Amino acid sequence: AEQVLPQALYLSNMRKAVKIRERTPEDIFKPTNGIIHHFKTMHRYTLEMFRTCQFCPQFREIIHKALIDRNIQATLESQKKLNWCREVRKLVALKTNGDGNCLMHATSQYMWGVQDTDLVLRKALFSTLKETDTRNFKFRWQLESLKSQEFVETGLCYDTRNWNDEWDNLIKMASTDTPMARSGLQYNSLEEIHIFVLCNILRRPIIVISDKMLRSLESGSNFAPLKVGGIYLPLHWPAQECYRYPIVLGYDSHHFVPLVTLKDSGPEIRAVPLVNRDRGRFEDLKVHFLTDPENEMKEKLLKEYLMVIEIPVQGWDHGTTHLINAAKLDEANLPKEINLVDDYFELVQHEYKKWQENSEQGRREGHAQNPMEPSVPQLSLMDVKCETPNCPFFMSVNTQPLCHECSERRQKNQNKLPKLNSKPGPEGLPGMALGASR
Amino acid sequence: GEAYEPLAWNPEESTGGPHSAPPTAPSPFLFSETTAMKCRSPGCPFTLNVQHNGFCERCHNARQLHASHAPDHTRHLDPGKCQACLQDVTRTFNGICSTCFKRTTAEASSSLSTSLPPSCHQRSKSDPSRLVRSPSPHSCHRAGNDAPAGCLSQAARTPGDRTGTSKCRKAGCVYFGTPENKGFCTLCFIEYRENKHFAAASGKVSPTASRFQNTIPCLGRECGTLGSTMFEGYCQKCFIEAQNQRFHEAKRTEEQLRSSQRRDVPRTTQSTSRPKCARASCKNILACRSEELCMECQHPNQRMGPGAHRGEPAPEDPPKQRCRAPACDHFGNAKCNGYCNECFQFKQMYG
Q1: Best of A28, A35, A170 to disrupt the B interface by mutation (most B CBs within 10 Å)?
Q2: Quick one: which of A190, A310, B176, B245 is 20 to 30 A from A129 by CA?
Q3: Is the peptide bond before B22 cis (omega within 30 degrees of 0)?
Q4: Model confidence at A409, in pLDDT bands (50, 70, 90)?
Q5: Residue A379: pLDDT band with limits 50, 70, 90
Q6: Of A31-45, A231-245, A270-284, B183-197, which range is least confident?
Q7: Residue A257 has what DSSP assignment?
Q8: Given an 8 Å threshold on Cβ–Cβ distance, is B121 in contact with A139?
Q9: Across A203-216, average pLDDT
Q10: In this structure, are residues A227 and A192 in contact, taking their beta carbons and an 8 Å threshold?
Q11: Catalytic: which of A105, A194, A255, A404?
């Protein structure tokens, strides 16, 4: 059943995915005057998921299995961190790779629908930390560390060397060429300061929805405080230079996922609450890495960097209403030529029709034929590129190490010229007009 | 330019006493990059002299004078001797040599880094949450009333500590305190002093003020971040804002000039039949209608004085025009539409 639909949006249209992958690195601007590396336009894109209520529950289940990280979704919802406010639209958690680069995958997917497999965001983060003036990032990080519970309560005292070592380590962690991270993952996992730097590269706020405690999976008892949740504002930019619709990410079990809205899902407001509903009161989400003067004008900063609206919500006592702050969210604005959700939705509709026919036929014939048997050849696609140089497509289980097109071409060539065993040149390959290269 | 200077660096420690050898160069381990060549006295802007144990001549002399008045007070703090290993060293840090100091910090960090399972996916060893959960109480960075036993090995302890009659004041510390160290053993005293300093700073002003006291604040109004010379003393945000403001001003001035010129044209034609010099700052009447500039502006060198020959045009470069952005000190150029390169680049980026 899981194979009926591709397991990621990008698999629905490789050409579009290649186009996005080509455009993103070109969009990064690296000023020579010391200003932080940043995106010129592409940071303003936002992805929205199509609604699924028109499909029957069984097929809806298939869609959700394919795209949605239901564990994180369920955990955050049960903790009342996600989708607790009925006045705002529901957010869904999309799946991301757990290779240590999930923060970047989640961010990239929120904006463009593809994961950061080419490490565009990761490289931008690393080069920013290596090549630009990071003293203010370090300064904010030190301030936040000093204010943290650990420093305040235990009297931790770092000297210059400790701070420098820690900072160097944070920079190293952002690197892309770590052969194998400490945790056994492909890349080193990233931390709060990396989110802050990233939101400055993107000139767009990032809101992380997360529990405040690392809990035991068995007993639910608290292990350690989790500080990652909260609001990250691109404070190294004047607000008027930034995009005011935030990127919303979920964090649970050491993993980041994008939390996207559902398109045309209902009359609810497209927004995310800036408070947590916690133990009988509304608690403001933490704004990370503020300096002391900024902390005093936190409300003003929030209004400058986000589109803050007030939403009435039901209080705990019967008949009471509270006004809470929420940040307005962007709607889907990806141009057609790079909008992967459209293609995926078309594929879903196509598969749904086939699935319905098969189920109908199965019911009529009365035998136990699997209605969800994969029928389209592209569903056997693997997550590895075709071996043909410069081919933008992915290999499939049946045609590996080539993609379908190259495999077909090779077969034809072999039939025509059985003695020649030459590979097709890249100029003849489909998709090469895009100038695809990796 | 460092965000944080070592708190524990106390110049009081290294006064007086014989030096086994003068320091040859400032250790990068002890000095931050930008203060490497500065005198060790806090806030002193002068360059150090290696012959004066890292002080400038002025501070050195002052200290010599001070030391001669109070010799007993500082005798126990011998900068030429490590208080931990008792070896003669060129430089000490908190009374101990760099090797001993490194060893203590290495021991502390290794015990901390191994204290948590590697499964913490998003956390690095930099995460203080790891430190707080450390089962090992032997941390040199840990402090407080219930602070643990000393964090140096037995070998690293000085006999001086053991000569005291009572145990170290710190609860749980097995070593002996000395009256000079207010009843603490050497290392607990260092901890005590660091934390006292920190607590005092956090009690009076911002807790971070003492840690970032040597940094340059951003020139922007009400900005609490650090400034950068690269951004003319501003932080990046204030720099961009200042640039934006500059451009708005430039644009406004340009428009004002244009509109005033438009207004002036009919007025001048009405008031006088003779045209004025085209230079904005000049109000001279043109001698000849076909010329744009008056004689004075055409030959500014002639205004120099009587020595200049009136009839001979002085060879001169075309006058450089200022950047069109009013607050900018640079020269503009035609290639950049009258702006300087920097402002032009900025205008292209954000304007």
Answers
A1: A35
A2: B245
A3: no
A4: confident
A5: low
A6: B183-197
A7: E
A8: no
A9: 88
A10: yes
A11: A255
Whole-complex ipTM: 0.74
Is A211 catalytic? The answer is: no
- Reported as a single tens digit per residue, the pLDDT across B83-127 is 777 776 666 666 677 667 666 655 544 444 433 333 323 333 333
Alpha-carbon torsion A126, A9, A71, A79, what sign?
A: positive
Phi, psi of A18 (to 5 degrees): -65, -40
How far apart, in Å, are the Cα atoms of A334 and each of A91, A260, A310? 18, 14, 28
**Residue pair A37/A24 in contact by the 8 Å Cβ criterion:** no
Q: Verify whether the Cβ–Cβ distance B349 to A29 is below 8 Å.
A: yes
Give the Cα separation of B137 and B153 in Å (integer): 14
Chain A to chain B Cβ contacts (< 8 Å): 157
The residue of B32, B103, B109, B121 whose CB has the most chain A CBs within 10 angstroms, and thus the best one to mutate to test that interface, is: B121
Q: Which residues contact B90 (CB under 8 A, 6 or more apart)?
A: B20, B21, B22, B23, B24, B80
B124, A294: Cβ pair inside 8 Å? no
Three-class HEC string of A326-374: EEECCCCCCCHHHCHHHHHHHHHHHHHHHHHHHHHHHHHHCCCCCCCCC
Torsion of CA A30, A32, A36, A40, to 10 degrees: -40
Q: Are B125 and B112 in contact (CB under 8 A)?
A: yes
Catalytic pick among A99, A118, A284, A342 = A99
Q: Nearest CB to A236: which of B124, B133, B237?
A: B237
Residue A245, helix vs strand vs coil: coil
- The alpha carbon of residue B178 is apart from the nearest alpha carbon of chain A, in Å, by 23
Rounded CA-CA distance A203/A81 in Å is 25
CB B106 within 8 A of CB A120: no
Tell me, yes or no, if A194 is annotated catalytic: no
CA-CA distance, A291 to A175, in Å (whole number)?
27
Say if residue B203's pLDDT is above 60: no
d(CA B98, CA B113) in angstroms, rounded, equals 22
pLDDT digit string (tens) for A293-334? 999 999 999 999 999 999 988 877 777 888 999 999 999 999
Q: Does B72 have pLDDT greater than 50? A: no
Is A404 an active-site residue?
A: no
Q: What backbone torsions phi and psi does residue B156 show, to the nearest 5 degrees? A: -80, -5
Determine whether the interchain pair A159/B7 forms a contact, defined as Cβ–Cβ distance below 8 Å.
yes
Helix (H, G, I), strand (E, B) or coil at B176: strand
Q: Among A2-11, A269-278, B103-112, name the most confident range.
A: A269-278
Set of chain B residues whose Cβ sits within 8 Å of the Cβ of A292: 206, 208, 224
d(CA A67, CA A50): 11
A173–B contact, CB cutoff 8 A: yes
Residue type, A153: E
> Vertex B300, ends B295 and B302: CA angle to 5°?
85
